[in-house]
Amino acid sequence: MSGSHGVAVGFYGVKKLFTKERSRLTALENVTLEAEENELTCIVGPSGCGKSTLLNLVAGLSPVDAGRVEFRGRPVTSVNTDIGYITQDSNLLPWFTVLENIQLPLDIRNVGKTAADRRSLARKWIAQVGLEGFERHYPHQLSGGMQKRVSIARTLVYDPDVILMDEPFGPLDAITRMVLHNLLLKLWQERQKTIIFVTHDLTEAITLGDRVVVMTKRPGTVKAVLSVGIERPRDAFSLSETPEYAAIHRQFWELMRSEVIETDEGP
Q1: Which domains, from first to last, does the chain contain?
Q2: What is the distance in angstroms between the CA of the first residue and the CA of the last residue of the chain?
Q3: Of 166, 173, 177, 199, which has the most beta carbons under 10 Å away?
Q4: What pLDDT, on a 0 to 100 scale, did the predictor assign at position 262?
């Protein structure tokens, strides 16, 4: 599956078990998958199929039980500090303002020569995600969508080449999600980072992804890897109205149907 861009993240024969009391649950079984550099790879599948577990393996937060996970050709054996990770929760520090939350990773990594340099970069990202005028606001003063914008800016501000996104827009209403889809498409078009995006929403995966990985129900394994084939740049507000989108959605849904119907989980 390796493409011309090279492989950013590779899973090779990966198995992952979770033990609770005396029982063992197999979350992932024989997963082989490669995410290419400078592409947005979406992973879809029913709830509980191990999608989030895959991201945690890349981040080095959990070890594999068989097989291996590679990051740019090197085995992941400890916490991976070369990636950015955006989760479902915004995880903002409630006692920090918008500006302070976004500047925090720059301070931790000692980016730039001075605190003023870091503050200036944080302000640029506030503008990038459309939050100018909210620099001094605290998280509790922001809507869910605005908090998510802060979370995205806080991750992208230190310029990681590979970004993991675990259902980041799941808790948001449909309109806010569409707005943030368009924002992510715009940011990707400008920077073309490597993104691995986990979702259970097939519409979201087609809107955002270059390729879509379809997972089976638990124990999760790769059922298919499909190319979206819709040209970029894309408009999240109108994409689903095109015949091209409808044809791709039908094709992908046929592959997912048997995985989600039996578990009563929606796509």
Answers
A1: 1-82+164-267 (3.40.50.300), 93-160 (no CATH)
A2: 25
A3: 199
A4: 60
